[in-house]
Amino acid sequence: MIIFVGLQGSGKTTWYHEHFAATHVHVSKDLMPNARNRDTRQSAQIDEALAAGRSVVVDNTNPTLDSRAPLIALGHRRGARVIAVYFEAHVPTSLMRNRARQGKARVPDVAIFRTKKQLLPPTLDEGFDEIRIIPSH
Q1: What integer pLDDT is reported at residue 37 of this predicted model?
Q2: Model-level pTM?
């Protein structure tokens, strides 16, 4: 189970498509625009995939310990190795990429600044088995 951590526009979804699309189930709240309880739906999708023996990428900002803790616990309950992939925060790049997005994919600039304020890099102390860092570019 891979949990992405990073700002909107940091390249998370592109990274998924380039590196994991052929091997991992893609779980993202962005793919559930009309879901009433996206956290519950996300957990159900992750649990279903792991129960079926599939690998999963959780593609959301996941900026805080509180947002990551239930995901880590779910992965470990299912016996998965839980890896954080941290996309180093670079606000100007995220803003530029976000402004190139169309429709609902584009978020208000303030959302990126809010996520930056909340963003804590993942640590092994949280329960991750491994942390990979993707440098900002």
Answers
A1: 83
A2: 0.91
